[in-house]
Amino acid sequence: MTVATSDKLSPAWSIIIYIATVHLIALLALFPGNFSWGAVGVAFLLYWLTACIGITLGFHRLVSHRSFEVPKWLEYVLVFCGTLACQGGPLYWIGGHRIHHKYSDTELDPHDSNKGFWWSHLGWMLWENASVKEDIPRYTKDIQDDPFYQFCEKYFIPIQIVLGLLLYWWGGWSFVIWGIFVRLVVVFHVTWFVNSATHKFGYQSYESNDNSRNCWWVALLTFGEGWHNNHHAYQYSARHGLEWWEIDLTWMTIRVLQILGLAKNVKLAPTRSSD
Fold it and tell me: Where exactly are the transmembrane stretches of this chain (predicted)?
């Protein structure tokens, strides 16, 4: 992989327009006529489904790191939920995340936190990075030929449109504004905080050779992803909250799946006594 220098970057206008449009439409939620508790409830349910079940459990801990195994049908369900977060297709998301871990906080990291909070939070997405695009196939060899992953990669925007039509049928424009646009904005920034805030705020329990930190408020918003220093120290671990006070709701979900016999070969970090 070649170093991504400034002369190799050009504005990613499609992404800039996409992110700006989602944020602008979400502002319609400020109008009283677009508010209803039902719409807020739908937004929260979809937030949990996309951020916790889809991104955190599916894209991240299951597929990106293979921290545990589930039946293929359940893997597809989790990946589909991640697709609803509309952060690119699963190949793009998972490949980019694996690249991040390989080069965390170095020049080759797509969202190197040494370039500043703004860059690691959002700025890195606003520029076309040919080097990362070229390398994603090398980091997704285990999933790139899977027809379901290819479908989600190609059609994640149409899938979101279908969801919007269903929400309009169910509850009108308020459900669409809150369930699609407000929810996407929240999921966007909550996910981006893992790239930015947890490489700047919090404490370090382990030597991870990067800036990753454990940040309680990001962990609260992301169902456990904020225990980021723990994760970078033990990337394979299905559990990120390694101390009793580090609440990890996603790990609790994995435990439920394990009890039900749906999660197997669960990988865990060593205990402190065996470090």
Answer: 12-31, 37-59, 151-170, 176-194
Q: What pLDDT, on a 0 to 100 scale, did the predictor assign at position 1?
A: 34
Alpha carbon distance 184, 140 (integer Å): 25
pTM of the model: 0.93
List the structure tokens of 23: 């944020």
d(CA 194, CA 199): 8
Q: Which residues of 19-50 are buried (b: 16+ CB within 10 A; e: fewer)?
A: beebeebbebbeeeebeeeebbebbeebbebb
Asked if residue 112 lies in contact with residue 14, where contact means CB atoms within 8 angstroms, the answer is no
Contact 225, 194 (CB under 8 A): yes
Percent of the chain exceeding pLDDT 70 equals 95
Among 7-11, 38-42, 269-273, top mean pLDDT goes to 38-42
Cα(155)–Cα(150) distance, integer angstroms = 9
Instruction: Show the CA angle centred on residue 76, arms to residues 158 and 20, nearest 5°.
Output: 35
